[in-house]
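Chapter summary example: a protein plus pyridoxal-5'-phosphate.
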Amino acid sequence: MFSDRVKNIELSGIRKIFDLAQGDVINLGLGEPDFHPPPEVIDALSEGAKKGYNKYGPSKGFPSLRKALAQKYSQWGDFTENNVLVTVGGTEAIMATMLSLINPGDEVLYPNPGFVLYKPHTIIAGGKPIDYPLYQEHDFVPQQDDILERITPKTKAIIVNSPNNPTGGVLDDRDIKMIVDIAEDHDLVIISDEVYFNIIYESEPKTFLGKYDKLIFVNSFSKEYAMTGWRLGYIIAPEEYIEQIGKIHYYTVACPQSPIEYAALVALEKSSYYTKMMVEKFKKRRDLIYSLLKDIPGVVPNLPKGAFYMFPKITIDIPVMDIVKETVKRGVLCTPGNAFGDNGEKHIRFSYAASEEDIRKAMEIFAEVIERFRKA
Ligand SMILES: Cc1ncc(COP(=O)(O)O)c(C=O)c1O
C-alpha cells in the first residue's frame, strides 16, 4: 500500500538507544544549543503575536526579513530579497531544493559521515544518493580524488556541509575552491548546508556564498540563535532558483510562520552578541572535552574547528555500538558514528552543547566504560 519512496527510507535507530537511559541523564546526544533564544527575540515573538502577526504571510517570507537576510550576506555578494526564500528550517530548505532539482535517476553526492537528511531527501526526490568519504586523517575535509572518482554523466549536484555535523570539520578557502572547480568542470549544482555558518572557532566564516553561480546556500536560525524548535531557515540562491524552489515550498508549507518571522527580524537586528556569547562558551567546552578525551587510551579525538560536535575514533577492538549502549545505560547520551553513515562506524559523536560540569562528569563515566572494555 505504501510508496516505494517511503519504503526505501528508514527512521534512525538512535531513539532506541536513548531509551536505554534511566533517571537523570547527561545529554551529549542532541544536535542543538543548550541555550534558549535571546530574551529580546522571545519578547518579539509575543509582541508579534499581540500585534496581529498570526495570519498567513507572503509565501517566500516577509519582504523585510528577506531584505535583512540579503543585507546580512552583502559582504559575499550583491544579493536582494529576490535571492532569498524563508523556509521552515534548514530541513525544509534542503527538501524543497531536492524536489525542485532532481529528476529520477539523477545522482547526488553527499558526505559520509554526514548529516542524516541528505540521503533520504535524495531518495524522496527520486534521485540516487552517492556518498563520498570524509576521513579523520584529513580533518574530515573531502578529498579531490574521492569526489572526482564518483562523478558520472548523471551527477547533478554535490552537497557540502561546513562546519560539519557530525565531525566539526571546516573547509578552508582552498578546499572550497577545489570543490567549486570540480562543480564548474562537471556542471554540478552545489548545495551548501551552512547551518553552523557562525559557529566557528579559529577564523571568520568560510563560505561557498559568492564563489559559484549554481549555488544553493542553506542556513537557519536554529543554531545561530538557539531557535531549533521555532523552525525557521532560509535559502540564498539565484533568482530563478528561488522561483522554482519557491513553488515546492508553497505547495508544502504555504508560507513560513508569521510571528516567528517577526521575531527572527529582531534576532538579525539585535542578537549577534548572543551568537558570539554562545560561540565563546562552545569554544571553552570544546577545549575541555578535547583535553579529557585525549587522555583516554583507545580514544583518538580531533580538534573540531566549528559546530559543537566531537567525533573521536575508538581504536579498541569492540563494536562501537556496545560502548555507546553501555555509556547510555550509565546516563550519558551520545550517538554512534554509524548513525551518520558507515564511514562513521568507528566513531562516537558527542555534542558539547552542555555545561562544563556535565562534560566533566560525562567524560569520567565514558573513561570508565572504555577502561572496562579495554580490560575485558
Ligand atoms: C548539518 C545540518 N543541516 C541541517 C540541519 C537542520 O536544521 P534546521 O533546524 O534548520 O532544520 C541540521 C540540524 O541538526 C544540521 O546539523
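Key point: The longest strand covers residues 155-161.
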